[in-house]
Design a protein that fits this description.
heterodimer, A: 9 helices, 83% helix, B: alpha/beta, Rossmann fold, 10 strands, globular
Chain lengths: 217, 271
């Protein structure tokens, strides 16, 4: 009972922190998708140099911890350009998830039958036009499940922003736990909010997938 | 209309097309026949540069085909339509969407106008009732007729058909051939890679027999069917006419399939 009443008492604080977590996730996913799409296109390009650039980016990001990347952007880059807390975290998370999203998009694009591109090209469509109108819409539909998965990872990774003192969910839980000496309750509470967000998001992705499947294929 | 001069194509060390010369006149229907692996499809794909020739020249209506010319590739492909063995319809568009996509996006045709001409084309291939269906809801024959309508929507000067009926159930072949026959009667220039000998004979103006990347024989269909000049053409035709006549090939050995393991061996073994 005690826990339930705490949940209500501290609700407004957590609710505010949850908003920050959602905003942070939304920003990083949006930018991460743009980066991912761009890098995926580099990766499937016929130009070797562009392939190498994409590989270099993916290798660097996958080969280093997110926390290092986050600190690099927030503390390191601050010496040159200061993005502020929110955008530092968003950019670091976006650049990080972009590498994984790039691989998801690349696999999706390559899973589309070659005949689709050939048919589009044989109708006089340019490569970018065929990509935009024919290949990407089909590829996007196919990558919704792994993309949704990546978004969930991104949502939970946003908790690392606590280490640059952003007032998101985890940081809030940490602060309450430290000041009240009731770690168990507050970390459980923080976890519940993440669980809530992930559940909502999973349901949304499933609904989207069903709706798109309803059309055809 | 189309002139192919000294065309060669290599895939690595494989020489798939050897010194191909071919002239196709306006309104001609040229049917290319030959065993699989003889290079017929590659030749067709070279004409609209889905495959890039290793050497040689292709002229279409007095213009040399050159992909390095600015936008040359896309301009060429607007004039050369292609129909594929596996239809390659766009699954995320309706039938109408498939047909209007290129005219609207490439020719910048007005949407209403594109819609009207698409409906006219659907009437021609007998599928007006399927205008709002998705490709997955169509039979193979219907898909191929939509694919033909889609190619026609760009008002091409020549249509290439790459084994248009090979992926169809036998009872659906006729409806596609009927559409092609109608196009031929309307004066469309067509190059058709096909195994439909009856079609070749009835509709084809010229028959081309290819073997091992070379054009072995070109002639009127009746001439090639009645009195082929080359021994290889003769052998090929007799095999096509009597599928059970394997000619000089080794007799097929029946291998009993008993267990799963053996099946796998059959599938991957050196056959």
């Amino acid at each position: 009972m005690h826990f339930l009443s705490d949940l209500i008492t501290y609700g407004p604080f957590f609710f505010k922190a949850m908003q920050i977590t959602v905003l942070l996730t939304a920003a990083s996913i949006t930018i991460g998708m743009a980066i991912g799409l761009f890098v995926a296109l580099l990766k499937i390009s016929k130009r070797k140099l562009l392939n190498r650039l994409a590989d270099l980016y993916i290798g660097l990001i996958r080969g280093t911890p997110l926390i290092v990347q986050l600190f690099f952007v927030y503390f390191g880059l601050a010496e040159i350009v200061d993005f502020g807390q929110f955008w530092s975290a968003s950019i670091a998370l976006a650049v990080h998830s972009g590498a994984y999203i790039a691989e998801i998009f690349r696999a999706g694009i390559q899973s589309i039958d070659r005949g689709q591109m050939e048919a589009a090209r044989s109708l006089g469509m340019s490569y970018p036009l065929a990509m935009r109108r024919i290949i990407l819409p089909q590829a996007f539909k196919r990558v919704i499940p792994p993309l949704g998965n990546q978004f969930i990872i991104g949502l939970k990774d946003s908790s690392l922003a606590a280490f640059i003192a952003m007032d998101e969910l985890f940081h809030l839980a940490q602060r309450f736990a430290a000041s009240t000496f009731r770690s168990m309750e507050f970390y459980a509470m923080g976890g519940l909010y993440y669980l809530f967000l992930v559940t909502i998001f999973t349901l949304a992705v499933n609904a989207l997938e069903r709706r798109l499947k309803a059309d055809e294929i | 209309m189309i002139k192919i001069k000294n065309l060669n194509k290599h895939f690595g060390s494989l020489h798939v097309l050897r010194d191909i010369d071919l002239n196709v006149g306006k309104s001609d229907v040229v049917v290319i026949i030959g065993a699989s692996g003889s290079g017929k499809s590659t030749l067709l794909r070279c004409i609209n540069l889905l495959e890039e020739p290793s050497s040689g020249e292709i002229w279409i209506e007095g213009n040399i085909v050159d992909r390095r010319k600015k936008n040359g590739l896309n301009i060429l492909r607007r004039d050369v339509g292609m129909v594929f063995q596996h239809f390659n319809l766009f699954p995320h568009f309706t039938v109408l969407g498939n047909i209007t996509e290129a005219p609207v996006q490439v020719r910048q045709m007005d949407k209403q106008q594109a819609y009207e001409s698409a409906m006219a084309l659907l009437e021609k291939v007998g599928l007006t009732d399927k205008a709002h269906a998705y490709p997955s809801q169509l039979s193979g024959g219907q898909k191929q007729r939509v694919a033909i309508a889609r190619a026609l929507a760009m008002k091409p000067k020549v249509l290439l058909f790459d084994e248009p009926t090979s992926a169809l159930d036998p009872e659906l072949v006729g409806e596609v051939l009927a559409v092609m026959k109608q196009l031929a009667a309307e004066g469309m220039t067509m190059i058709v890679v096909s195994h439909e000998m009856a079609f070749a004979r009835e509709v084809g103006d010229w028959l081309v027999y290819m073997d091992e990347g070379k054009i072995v024989e070109v002639g009127r269909p009746e001439q090639i069917f009645e009195e082929p000049r080359h021994e290889r053409t003769k052998t090929f035709l007799s095999r096509v006419r009597e599928p059970n006549n394997f000619g000089k090939r080794e007799p097929q050995v029946f291998t009993p399939r008993t267990g799963k393991g053996e099946n796998r061996e059959l599938a991957t073994g050196a056959v």
